[in-house]
Amino acid sequence: YDDVIKRYKNGEKVLVVRNTVKSAKDTYIEIKNKVPSGTKLLLLHSRFERKRKSEIEETLMAEFNAKKEPCIVVSTQVVEVSLDINFDVMFTDCADIMSLIQRFGRVNRQRENIGIMKDIYVAEWYNPQGVRNQIYPDYICKKTYDELSKYDGKVLPERDIQGIIDSVHDNFELIKAERFSPFLNGEWKQKMYCNNVNTSLANALEIVGYVGVLQSKIQYYLKTNDKSVEIPIVGRKDTRDDSLYVNKIKFSPYRVGEEGKVQFYIIPDNLYSNEMGL
Fold this sequence. Notes:
It contains 8 helices and 14 strands. The chain has helices at residues 2-9, 21-34, 50-65, 97-104, 138-149, 161-168, 200-204, 218-224, and strands at 13-17, 41-44, 71-75, 89-92, 119-122, 183-184, 187-188, 209-214, 231-234, 236-237, 244-246, 249-251, 253-256, 261-267.
């Protein structure tokens, strides 16, 4: 944290990328408690209302990215590919090399800075509690860190990146594209455009997404079907009653129709804020 704040005080745009929403929020709070009031500090992750997330991204582009003033942005991997931003230095959790390459692209993107090398700090991989990494496999993180350690204090040439990928993913197994095709054996598997959370791709990646709505906005949402108030959430579903668990917090389903189909999950208002998200 001291290094992050030091770079900010030196007049730099600092990007901090964490692997999970919880760690990003913890980092944001820690930094906020250490910097003076008025510091340009922003938190970005996926668990905001869709409209609010768009507002944060617009602020990031117009106020934090476009202007020359120093700032600190704390984000999850949502920053990897969705935003064309240009920061001076990055502090990031260790992750799969494939993901880190995308993150590296958020620093020193402008052509006028060609030849001026910027710093990227990758936090050492560790798992002291022995808890399985829910985002990236532990062995992939360790192999990635070991490979990047060879370039500690040096420039990482672009020509070496493919070799690092091959070393980290030396047992990579190709998956036939037909597995994800909507058209197979002369028939459409996907009958219409819709939000299908149980696609073969999502299941293969072990990512299942759901939608939450704040309790105070349920009637508005049912009346207008306004997607901007939806909050995307990823969690573990209890097959017994369809409740959803996110970080051990239980969310109840909102059911519709005679069959009681789950339309979304109810989020108590006290678990959400426009600054921190869910």
